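User: Hey, quick favor. My workstation is busy. Could you predict this chain's structure for me?
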Amino acid sequence: MWWVWLRQAWSPAQTSRLSPAVLVGTSASFLLILGLVMVLSASSVESFAETGSPFATVLKQATFAAVGVPLAFLAYRTPLRWWRRMAWPGLLAALVFQALVFTTYGIEVNGNRNWVKIGPITAQPAEAMKLALVVWGAHILARKHHLVHRLGHLLLPLAPVAVAGLALILIGRDVGSAVVVVALLAGMLVAAGVRWRYLVGAGLAALVTLVILVWSADHRRERVQLWLSGECEAYYGACWQLTHGQWALASGGWWGLGLGASNEKWAWLPEAHNDFIFAIIGEELGLPGTLTVLALFSVLVIGAARIATQARDPFVTIAASGVIAWLGGQALLNIGVVLGLLPVAGVPLPLVSSGGSSLVTALVAIGMLMSLSRARTIAPTSRRPRTAQPAARQS
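Assistant: No problem, here it is.
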């Protein structure tokens, strides 16, 4: 029975090995289920207007979930050594995939050229780039974990490859994905034990680059200026989405309007089932719904952090830290935008927002975390260390 398995999984003898996987898998499963329910609710009006069926968008999302869950299980069953073997091939494939946006296969969406359409399949290569950089970066930093204090070993080959991946994303004007990539790289560098002066220098360089990118485009500059001002004086343009996102949260109140009762999804709030799905959760499910989302992401991060901190293999520590910075950082970025704490960045809420590329890669990352937790690299914290026996006295 399932309760017998659960009691055994959470027993003191099994906690050190199984509880991280239980935390990660359970929280990710609930986020996935909640996401499918809220995508159905948030997209039903728009789907009916476009296709005549209120279920078109959620069926598409469910199809991606049906693809992503088996891939997550496959990732969970993949041994640790195979993750390291796939580091270079996966990175090269991701770079080629990202470069396809500049060919005839690339398409432009909302002013960003960051999508690839091959036949009936449309995908966002930046999502695959995140996963590839986590695996490859962990592989490189784990091999050099005794040399990361030397700048030359730290820069090569990590810096040129990371800059190349970021450049391909930024040329397509996808600043939101680039920010997430920088966050996951920073998480891995911290976990690898890189000296703080190197981290500060890299952070300042990234900040200067971000400021240049923001001020070089009118729409980005307008978004940041609105965020800095703290208010929208005009009810149009960049203020429209921000204002309706705030109205959605405000109208939900403490307990929400009820599942399916959103007003903003009636063509008022743009990207209601995607980037601003957290606003619809707040409007329909109220404060309990939004706090549930925050709690589930917190449990996910805690489980991944336990995998990272209990690992003996540096690859496990660095890879798990990269996934924490990726999924956790992207969730904070998305929620911060909806709450008005950050300027609009255009990133989905992992495992919840509508979007096949984001969902599939996030599920594979979850499977990889569970694979790392089941590998024989977790320190046996439940066992007491052996003490040396005193030497026998010589008579």
